[in-house]
Amino acid sequence: MPAVQRSVRSGAMPDKRRPQAQPSSTRPQLHVVSGKQGSREIMLDGARRLLVWTRTRRAPLFHIVVALSILGASLVVSLMLRTQMIENSFEATTTQQSISRLNQDIQDDQSKLDELQASLPDKAEKMGMIPQKGSISIDLQGYKAATDSKGQQ
CB atoms < 10 A from the CB of 91, how many? Predict the structure, then answer.
């Protein structure tokens, strides 16, 4: 009798707990991809597949449009910022050159003034002026205006 009894493992009895094989028709059909296409054809094929994929699903199309919009806006803002920075740099350089030129003009004028002050006594002597020997001071503390005979100043 021990030969009559079989275990579940031997396969003599069908097990209802085992999953049945599903038909393979749910898997996508495989196809051969040839590498002889040109790069332009590959790009067009990729674009066509992207369009088909986005037409079947609305959310990816929206996400792609938003991402491209953000990317384009950031590119434009980056270019505008760079342009503004270049303009500011140019203005700073121009201002620095102007400051340098003005400093040079001030130094030139100061040296000319020093030369004129140094030559002033010689020019005064040529004109017949006499150098001052001492200093004279006038005290106006006790000054009274002179009055005429009518009592007016």
Answer: 10
Give 138's pLDDT tier (boundaries 50, 70, 90).
confident
Rounded Cα distance between 141 and 135, Å, is: 19
- CA atoms of 118 and 6, how far apart (whole Å): 133
Rounded to 10 degrees, what is the CA torsion of 12, 18, 19, 21? Answer: -30
Q: H helices of 6-57, where?
A: 39-56
Residues 106 and 98 sit within 8 Å (Cβ to Cβ): no
pLDDT in tens, 92-125: 999 999 999 999 999 999 999 999 999 988 888 8
Give the burial class of 54: count Cβ atoms within 10 A of its Cβ; 0-12 exposed, 13-18 middle, 19 or more buried.
middle
Give ∠ CA 11-15-20 in degrees, rounded to 5.
110
What is the rounded CA–CA span in Å between residue 74 and residue 55? 27
Identity at 100, one-letter amino acid code: S
Q: What is the pLDDT of residues 27-44, one digit of tens each?
A: 778 877 766 667 778 888
Q: Look up residue 103 and give its two tokens.
A: 């400093």
